Every structure is written in C-alpha cells, then in structure tokens.
Amino acid sequence: MRVILREDVDKLGRRGEVVKVAQGYGRNFLVPKGLAYIHTPGNAKRVELERRFLHVKETREKQEAEDLGRRLAQTSTTIVRKVGENETLYGSVTNADVSEALEKEGFTIDKRKILLEEPLKTLGIYTVPVKLHPEVTAELKVWVVKE
To answer: Which end of the chain is more exposed for a tag (fewer CB within 10 A), N or C?
Structure first.
C-alpha cells in the first residue's frame, strides 16, 4: 500500500513523502491517526497545499526558537541544594528542576526539551542542552550551589 505522509514519522519518512507500507499499518494506524493519506492524485494535491502552509509556519517557528535560544544562551540559572559532608548532593538535579528554575527566570520550557544525559549529582557549573526545535538546540548554563 502506498501512502503520503502528513507528518514526520520516525523510521518511515518525512512529511510529503510517498512511502510503501504494509496494508494493516496504513489502514489501521497511519490513516486513522491522521499521519498519512492513501496515495491518490487528489490527496497529492492536498498534501502539496498543506506543505506550502506548513513551510511558512515552520520557518516562523524556527525563527522564534532561534531567538529564544539566543536569550537562553545569555542567561544562567542557579539551583540551590542541600549537600552532605563530601559536597555531594542530597538527591539530584533533574530536567524538571531545571525547567522549574527557568520558569522563575521567565522562560516556559517543557522538561522533556531539556536534554540531561543523567541527573546532576555534584556541585558545579554545567552546560545543559535545550532542544527548542528539531533544528535548534540552545546551551544553558546551570549553577548547582549549596544551601
């Protein structure tokens, strides 16, 4: 079965591509979820119109993400934690903690966009990547200090 993707689908293709998929996957998952249309000439025209509108929208979103990334790169946030006798933290600093600290600074960023490989468990200064857009990743300075 051939379908035209309406959205980017991992391990399958990008928006607007015509891909061949199994009959059940297309009819039972992709089409009902709104991720694809069945390949017909009419649907191809429809997807082309959607692509034009989405290109303008994506360009605007990318520009906004780049502006936010520049502002984030110029700021740093401080997280205060209790420490033990060897300067080790009680608990750890997670991406949710960084998100809360950013909200206090005036930025609203979802914790899932903060890309910590593992929670921060020691005092120090860290550079934390924040994925604002599929093509834009900003660097944020996080200071973990003792109480």
So the answer is: C
Within a 10 A sphere around the Cβ of 72, how many other Cβ atoms?
21
Q: How far apart are the C-alpha atoms of 118 and 13, rounded to whole Å? A: 30
Question: Phi/psi of residue 83, each to 5°?
Answer: -125, 160
User: pLDDT tens digits for 46-84?
Assistant: 888 888 888 898 899 999 999 999 999 999 999 999 988
Closest CA to 80 of 123, 42, 41, 119: 123
Tell me what pLDDT residue 62 has. 93
The answer to whether 35 and 7 have CB atoms below 8 angstroms apart is yes
- pLDDT, the chain, mean: 91
∠ CA 41-43-46, nearest 5°, is: 115
Q: List the one residue out of 38, 30, 46 whose CA is nearest residue 3.
A: 38
